[in-house]
Design goal:
about 350 residues, Four Helix Bundle (Hemerythrin (Met), subunit A), Rossmann fold, 3 domains, two-stranded antiparallel ribbon, elongated, binds guanosine-5'-diphosphate, binds magnesium ion
């Protein structure tokens, strides 16, 4: 976003006031003209008189904003209270930038509300940039530790594998991400098998087979057209028999507004009871990914989210939006097409990227 956001923020800060004061430009109000005239007179007097220490102190104490010594540097604290009206007016502009950067309405509302609480009517020093960072951070959930979750389940229920289901629309990156997750799990010495529950799209099983062969992982599949729930069931039984740690379920892409397909994924979940239902969304699709995440969450009650294609996304707002609408954590970000291109989601890193 965020060069734009940053620019806007700077403009915003300077409107609120250099050094944090609210600047009334001469054109803005009559009152500000008066202040300006007063200032001129004072300036003239000032040149006549010697600038003694007592006067300096008085000026410091004065409430006239022009006398507040400006601080140089990046963060400009707000010193005088910002009215709610002024805030609303300024936040409207900021909302547009956020909107253009894939932050959904509901998330913008959330940011606005929390920013307002931090800035409006506050006399103490508040850096607007810090307040905005904090408001965004509040919407993001810390990424859980998948490895720890699997270990915990395997030690508490020794006869059951940890089942992970990947859901999302076509092309979101489910199959590729499943392979990337398998790669991470392998590195952590977990044993696993993959369930080819996309029995719908031509060549889906062949695509999956290429990955499982490369990774040296067993693929459980049936014919095209088979009931996907039963493929998952077979895979879980296979894992139980072979004492495997994890079952990864690949599913067919489905549009979130297609009732029959959403019913099908509900059935896969009902039959196989995944420990982790992950929604795969594309970072670049912003509001679309947000609506999908909400619909999938309504249908199958997601446990978490992975956003793919973060490598081609400059905006960063999708993560904020999907977290806000689902209230679920983002586990990973897909950052490319190789197996290693999967990064644990780090909200601080995302915020830094947005403000860099
Ligand atoms: N650049 C980039 N491409 C990705 C990423 N994840 C998946 N892809 C590509 O997106 C396309 C669709 O991925 P696929 O896993 O088949 O999606 P699915 O239909 O949800 O299973 C493929 O060409 C992938 O290589 C990612 O993180 N970054
Ligand atoms: Mg696929």
């Amino acid at each position: 976003m965020v060069k734009l956001l940053k620019d806007k923020l700077q403009k915003w800060v300077s409107k609120v006031g250099e050094g944090g004061k609210i600047v009334n430009t001469p054109k803005e109000t009559d009152r500000s003209k008066k202040i300006d005239n007063k200032k001129k007179i004072r300036e003239e007097k000032k040149t006549k008189r010697k600038f003694n220490k007592k006067e300096k102190n008085e000026k410091k104490k004065s409430k006239n904003p022009e006398n507040i010594k400006e601080k140089s540097g990046k963060k400009k604290p707000v010193r005088r209270s910002l009215s709610e009206e002024k805030f609303d007016e300024l936040f409207e502009e900021l909302s547009l930038i956020l909107l253009q950067n894939n932050v959904a309405y509901s998330a913008i509302e959330g940011i606005g509300k929390s920013l307002k609480e931090k800035l409006v009517g506050k006399d103490k020093k508040v850096s607007i940039e810090d307040a905005l960072r904090d408001s965004i951070k509040e919407l993001l959930i810390d990424s859980p530790d998948l490895i720890k979750q699997i270990k915990e389940k395997r030690s508490s229920e020794k006869d059951k594998p940890f089942v992970i289901l990947f859901a999302g629309i076509n092309g979101a990156g489910k199959t590729t991400t499943l392979a990337k997750v398998a790669n991470i799990l392998k590195k952590n010495k977990f044993s696993m098998c993959v369930a080819a529950c996309d029995t719908f799209r031509a060549a889906s099983m062949e695509q999956l087979k290429v990955h499982t062969d490369k990774l040296g992982v067993e693929l459980i599949k049936k014919d095209y057209g088979a009931d996907p729930a039963s493929v998952g069931y077979d895979a879980i039984n296979y894992a139980k028999k072979n004492n495997l740690d994890v079952v990864l379920i690949d599913t067919a892409g489905r549009m979130n507004n297609r009732d029959s397909l959403m019913k099908e994924i509900e059935k896969i979940c009902r039959v196989n009871k995944p420990d982790l239902k992950l929604f795969l969304g594309e970072s670049i699709t912003g509001n679309d990914a947000t609506t999908q995440a909400k619909d999938f969450n309504d249908a199958i009650n997601l446990d978490g989210i992975i956003l793919s294609k973060a490598d081609v996304d400059e905006k960063g707002g999708t993560a904020i939006s999907v977290s806000k609408v689902t209230g679920k954590p983002i586990y990973y970000l897909g950052t490319g097409q190789r197996y290693d291109d999967l990064e644990k989601f780090d909200k601080n890193k995302l915020i830094e990227k947005m403000f860099e």
